[in-house]
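User:
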Amino acid sequence: MLKYSINMIILLSLAIILNCSPTANNKTLEDGWEKFEAGEYTEAKDIFNLLTSSEGAEAYLGLGWSNFRLNNIAGAEDNFMNASSLQDANAGQAFIQWVLENYQQTIDFAESVLQTSPAYQFNHDNSVTAEDLILHQAFSYFHLGDYNTTITKIQILNTGFTADVNALDIAEVLLTELENLKSIYQ
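Assistant: Predicted structure:
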């Protein structure tokens, strides 16, 4: 009888644990990314949130991108920090820092991605590319008043672009080109 009681306690404990576990609903990272790619960011966020304890950085990555798309900048920043070992999180951080007007951090996060993957493209959103990161770097250098480096970054995206950094209208010329590039790469 004691053996039966112990087995029942073990079975009941397992049933409770399985019903309370984050994956008991059979949601996977793939389910979250499918929702994300379909533009269903709230649903994706809910799935990734369930998976953070079992899937770690990968779930935080999805949670970060979902929060970013939902304009929850503070949440996205925290999520990307929890996934900082992943290149896609650093790309996300570059965009977060841009929104927060932390231009040097935008440059640094983008550079960390571009150094390891010069042809970077986010697998779950093909519009997030190396060119997009370079454009954000160019805008950031512009905001920091580093027009020489702004020109260098612009020339990566438009090899035919030239400008005289000493021209009186250099800021206007650069901003016009940056806006033109923005219409192409965003």
